[in-house]
Amino acid sequence: MKRGIIYVVVGVIVVFAVIAAVKPVRQRARQIAADFKVISADTGDVMASATYQRFATRREAVLAMKKALVEVASIESVFVADSGRPITVLPPGGVKFDPHKIGVSIWLLRDRWVATAQTYGNFSNFSTMTCMITAMLDSTTLDSIKWRYHAAAPRCAEAYFNDSVLALLPPPPPLPAPVTADPGVTPGGDPHRVLDWGPVNNTPPRMPLIRKATCEGEGCTITGTWAACSTVAARADKRLDAALVFTIHPGERFTALTADLHVLEPGIVLFRRPFTTTVPIDESGLVDITFLPADTLFVLIDLGEGEVVWQYRGSTMRGEMFWAHEPPASSDTFGLVRPAKTVWWVRVRNATGQEGWLVGDYQKMATGGYMDEIERCLHPTKR
Question: In the chain, how many H helices and how many E strands?
């Protein structure tokens, strides 16, 4: 009898011990299941699902940008091996990444080139990440063919870089300025350096060319208080067929937040005879460029005060607008046969806080810059 009582007591103790041990296990299992649902977005918690999707898409965007930059490094290494210098404009159709999703900008500096990647389209809605890759060029020797290429891995961070191109190539030993074949042009002054820009390359730049936070013309501005001179439409996206968000009426003030310049078609300058001009290549001096009848100069952006961004033999740089806006005469050495076609998209906000994109047009709005006071659009007598 006593042994039976002992067995019963021991059994009760074992049952309670099992129950006490199983309870925290069940709680942990429920927590793991809940966490798994959040990760897989199979949950009614909308915020949790959206957050996961945002970070998942950002990781995907970062991987795509890194892959694109590695591809750019491979292309640049080939050009450095072949011609002794990197390029700023990638060969059309020569990349595998989608330029509509990944935008790449390339800087040429004295001892390196730097490429940055940003995302467009759906990627950009989830990612403010920018990735960068830097490749050092060992220019200890003046013979650029012997440059040694040192590529680094892409690095990514929450950052923003304005798209731009700055061509600053290592200079060779100073040479006398070439004598132009055009008797109406004489170099004059101190001898300028001459760079080897490689063989004739009239491949046009890839279009559209998008420059963020950029505007054209002297004294242009992309932020601040503006005023409308006539009715303008603000749209949901940078497309003329995008949905209308709101309308700005004549005399109404609004705020410009930023602006992107889209080059849809490059301008074209052609040459009938050799012509030499000078461009500032770095702080140390000037460089002479001799254009040949076989060359095509592609005009990209008008910076104002006679300065433009152009592409010559695959290199993008700044230079003076030495041509006239009118079509060339039959006796002219050179001339502009087609102007660049650009669209200036401005991100704006109205008085009620709505935001949208509109096409920048100096005839329809005043930007408040030092050469464009908004008062001319606020009073009918000044329009």
Answer: 4, 21
Question: In the prediction, which pLDDT does 5 show?
Answer: 63
The secondary structure element, H or E, covering residue 289 is strand 285-291
Q: What would the DSSP string read from start to end of 290-357?
A: EE-TT-EEEEEEEEETTEEEEEETTEEEEEE--S-SSPPPTT-SEEEEE--EEEEEEEEE-TTS-EEE
All structural domains of the chain with their residue ranges: 47-170, 209-263+343-382
Range of lowest pLDDT (17-26, 317-326, 342-351) = 17-26
Question: What is residue 194's DSSP assignment?
Answer: E
Which of 320, 113, 294, 90 has its CA nearest to residue 201?
A: 294
Region at 281 (left for phi over 0; alpha for psi -120 to 50; beta for the rest): alpha
3-state secondary structure of 54: helix
Helix, strand, coil content of the chain in percent (nearest 5): 25, 35, 40
Strand pairing report for 341-349 and 355-359: antiparallel
DSSP state of 364: T
| CB < 8 Å & 24+ apart, contacts of 23-31 | none
- Cis peptide upstream of residue 208 (ω within 30 degrees of 0): yes
* DSSP reduced 3-state for 124: helix
Burial of 305 (0-12, 13-18, 19+ CB in 10 A): exposed
Domain 47-170 is found in CATH 2.40.110: no
pTM score, two decimals? 0.50
State the virtual CA torsion across 297, 300, 304, 306 in degrees, nearest 10.
0
pLDDT-derived band at 358, boundaries 50, 70, 90: very high
What length is written for the chain? 383
Given a contact cutoff of 8 angstroms between Cβ atoms, the answer to whether 376 and 366 are in contact is yes
Coil/strand/helix, residue 358: strand
DSSP 8-state class, residue 167? B
Domain 209-263+343-382 has CATH 1.10.3720.10: no
In angstroms, rounded to a whole number, what is the distance separating the alpha carbons of residues 324 and 336?
7
